[in-house]
Amino acid sequence: MQDAWVVVGLDNGGTKNNATVLDPSKGFLIDQLLETPSRVREGPEVAVEALAQCFASVLDRLGLDVRSVRVVGLDTPGPASADGVISSAGSTNFSHPGWKGFDFRAALQARLGLPVVYNNDGNAAALYAHHVCFGAEGARHSSVSAIVGTGLGGGVIESGHIVKGAAGMAGELGHVHVPMAGLLAEGQPVPLCNCGFFGDAESVASLTGIAQNLLPFWLGQFPGHELGALDPLDAAKRVRSYGEKGDPLALRVFEQQAMALGRLFTIAANFTDPGAYFIGGGVVETVPTFRDWFLAKVRESTHLREEQARVVRFSLVPDLDMAGARGAALAALESVAPR
Ligand SMILES: [Zn+2]
């Protein structure tokens, strides 16, 4: 069975690792989450070992020998270089001092004794969304994915490939400035992002944006609202459940998020003119009626030319909890079997 080979995808998160296995014909051999603790808070040495165990357990689950693995795909949250060196400034996920400037990709490669291909988690999920949407036709299409979480992540796919950029920072959609005129209400301050920009997409379309910018303003417009009694981050996490019930404050918050995403996509339409726009994250992991309302708002706020409107599609990033590992595996497969 020397000819039968596979690719392993490893998704490294703040608390959990997730693993998948891909065959050369792009079929996934495992259709559920295989999660193990990531232990990133304990520093790189412990975390690399935890990933190696995740790798071993997915092979074990499928009864595969390590010798059948040709390449490994790794994805992690950023910021990191295109080759997987964690930012020297550190980050939310990699707060242990040992992570500063740590070459995560090379360390895992050395530990596993196998080639490791790195991507950040937004790019990996974007590649997976592209693959699900376009399948075997992927190389003939382009797409943009925006994933709303604590921040606003995502990726840009051109002709089936992740656009990484010179420093690995392409697809940082959250920090693209979007026009605020007509988005902000009368008297609403221009939102500030953690990156230092005023009025970028993440300053509105993220959980952090809700907690730091949108809720403080809208709670002032709806005095006595129940969410005002809660801690801001806790309140931000609960806004969606209010939105599902049609709460006017929550609907204003999500309408602004949808407008920010639509304006971001309008920039993409004039920049790379993608064939598909994907949205993922908490904003769409909700009841169908609310999700459809949100998607319609995004679409309504995306200004396309008639020729574009005829050919594009708007869709969801599928299987978001598995999208990182699966996209990392697809990217690794591409590195050994270029189309
Ligand atoms: Zn920003």
What share of the residues does DSSP label as strand, in percent?
A: 15-25%
- Outline, from the CA principal axes? globular
Structural class by SSE content: alpha/beta
Radius of gyration: 20 Å
What is the topology, as strand order, of the major beta sheet?
A: 3-2-1-4-5
Which stretches are poorly predicted, pLDDT < 50 over at least 5 residues? none
Supply the number of helical segments.
10
Mean pLDDT: 95
Give the SSE order as H and E letters: EEEHEHEHEEEHHHHEHHEH
Cofactors, ions, other ligands:
zinc ion
Head-to-tail CA distance between termini: 24 Å
Count of distinct strands? 10
Helix content: 25-40%
Largest sheet: 5 strands, mixed
Architecture overview:
By secondary structure, this protein is of the alpha/beta class. It is 40% helix and 16% strand. The strands form two sheets. The protein has a five-stranded mixed β-sheet with strand order 3-2-1-4-5, sandwiched between helices. Strands 8-7-6-9-10 form a five-stranded mixed β-sheet, sandwiched between helices. It is globular and about 65 Å long. It starts with 5 loop residues before the first strand and ends with a helix. It binds zinc ion. The site of zinc ion has 7 residues, from loops.
What's the quick description here?
This protein is an alpha/beta fold and 339 residues long. Helix content is 40%, strand content 16%.
